[in-house]
Specification:
With about 230 residues, the protein is of the alpha+beta class. It has helices at about 1-30, 40, and strands at about 100-105, 110-120, 120-125, 130-135, 145, 150-155, 155-160, 160-165, 165-170, 175-180, 185-190, 195-200, 205-210, 225-230. The radius of gyration is 20 Å and the shape is globular.
Length: about 230
Amino acid sequence: MRKTLKWGTRIIGLFLLLSACLLWLAYCSPRPSNMTDPAVLAGDGSKVDYCALPKLDGSGLMAADIPKGNTPGCAYEHFPMPILANCTEPLVDGAQDIRGLWKAVSGKAGHIERVEQCGARTVITTAGIIHDLGPNSTGGETSNDTEGSVNFIAGGKEYCMRTSAGAAWRNDKLEFNAFGFGPVVVRRYKDGDDMIWEYIDGSITRMERICTLPSDHKTPKPRGKRRVLF
């Protein structure tokens, strides 16, 4: 009986330690320096025509020439300019062209996101976040960002859930792996003229292409409640 209690206590202690480590990693681990071009964050991406896509003919910059994009703080304050606007590197073999501005018409209806691509690089901008994955001139190939909302404030400092993922094209689908090596958490791919977004929770969202950002999406909508602890 004592041996069972002893092992039970050890397992509970190990579980609590692991939980504490995950919470520290999710909320308190050091953020990378923001390497996003200041002009990208200062500009107004809501004025861009996203049906006028650049030609990927190799005549301009390559993906590895452009600084990595990072979510500023817990979320951007207004829809930023495209990060890969001057990149013309042709897409890698096996990649579908899913560039543009997309609006969900089923599943997570109303969700809007911008997808940028060139070479092996993909940038997703939506709901306050910038997820930049692939070769760049300043950082690693996995994203290192947030979920786009402030979860709590302590000591005057904002804390938000961290995320990290890598992306690769497999069987005509862009798959996002947690931390770059973990399980597949998201898939995006074309279905006719639409884009399909599959999420780890089992939801499937169909998205249609739009050309301009709706006025009610110029500023990010918080995903969670803000709690002030002290």
